[in-house]
Write a structure and sequence with these properties.
heterodimer, A: 69 residues, mainly alpha, 4 helices, B: 508 residues, 2 domains, two-stranded antiparallel sheet, 8 strands, globular
Amino acid sequence: MVPVQKILSFYIDGFQSMRVGKKLWAIILLKLFLILTLFNYFVYDKSIKTEYKTDIQKSNFVYENLKGK
Amino acid sequence: MEDYLVDWSRAQFALTALYHWLFVPLTLGLGFIVAIMETIYVKTGEEFWKKTTKFWMGLFAINFAIGVATGIIMEFEFGTNWANYSWFVGDIFGAPLAIEGILAFFMESTFFAVMFFGWDKVGKKFHLISTWLVAIGSNLSALWILVANGWMQYPVGMIFNPDTVRNEMNNFWDVILSPVAISKFLHTVGSGFVMGALFVVGVSAWYLLKNREIKFAKSSILVAATFGLITSIFLVISGDEAAHQIAHKQPVKLAAMEGLYDGEYGAGLVVFGLLNPNKTLEDEKDSFLVEITVPKILSILGYHELNAYVPGLKDLVYGNAEHNIMSTAEKIQKGKIAVASLEEYKEAKKSEDALGAKNARLSLQENMKYFGYGYIKAPEDVVPPIALTFYSFHIMVYLGGWFLLLFALLLFFITKREIRDYRWLLYGALWSIPLGYIAGEAGWIVAEVGRQPWAIQDLMPVGIAATHIATTSVMISFTLFAVLFTTLLVAEIKIMTAQIKNGPEGGH
């Protein structure tokens, strides 16, 4: 068996033989979905990276917040 | 910015961090206990130890799976809720976090898979190495996060660039080898090691109370109590170093931890105390309603000298010329000069006034150390919440002492007596599992609440670090997190307890 096939069968056999592990993977995938879609696109949709494209814009934004407080 | 928004943003970050820390310490400690058990299996060749290792490895996997990625949310929060902070810290925070991400990905995707899927596919020794690498890798991940946190407590290895309005790393090694970062790392992973040991002895004690899995439970207690005793001693030593660092780098935090209003030579450590809730900095009332103090210990702890002077909150706020302690009012003045110099520099650059820019930059550099004080309204505002810091510190210390005693007692009774006859000790071990989590969270409260009002010590207070966004959106996301994390915690407890009830014969 070529190495890639060996590695693939290593993971496939491993996943197939899991018992509690399948439930855990379901939780991991659901959690990642929530974090990377719901939170990333709807809760944290606006950040300094999304609102300001260049470093100059970002530094100007922060500078405005720092001065004259 | 309104305090209401800042408080909600802080509450959200605290909630995320506290929940995240419910999952992390068990990973840090249990990984090593599993590796030790597997080492015994490889050395002895006894199938019993393989079965024992696989059982605890299964519980390790449950905790790991439920906890993984919960820290990502904090990174989102930096960008959205703490935009000023995340830009101001520059690559100093980003570099360690990026290293952590890459390291975690490669370590976890490769060796984690070998550890779980490789029992019958790879050699015993290769499997054992993988298990050790997972344990070491998890702790190395913690190193990078704690280096970043250590920098917030004691910013070093950087220079502020007024053109970009951010700090730039000028010495990677100063950041990585910062004494605060090192002591924080050692003390924090040490608490994880103790948590792992508490978990194993607690679950094993439950089996003994149920008269189940006797050999398995006793063997597990022997390994975990030995590991727990050694790491508890390590925790005391690293805690001593952490206190020493706090005394030098964050003296206000140390004074709050001990409710010390007036500085003292040969200051004592409060072993038990009830703070006077009506006490303020300005009055001369007693700091405590009830107090039991051991003389000299705080001086030894903080400065490693019997009669060292430990400054109190009044010294640190109002200054003390005799001990060369600058008043906060003076620091505020210097901070205001730094903030004004930044504005002057920017204006001079805009009007192409080279000399003006040079002078403003020099003034900024001279006062940059106090930059954050420029935003502090009153000197008393640099004092953190004293009661929360004081009680959290003492709860952490009491529980740490109890764990040390517990491991010593367990080792004695497991080797010299029939431990099943001592049910009070077994109950003590079982109920110490939640106490371990309380101690860990209390430690983080001391570290983070104790350094308020600073997001970055002396450079940026939380009110300036926060982004001006709608308070309602922070409240909504706070609620969403509370629901998500509570669901994850309930799932973990249910899956974990089901697996424990199945016993070592259950699989993963």
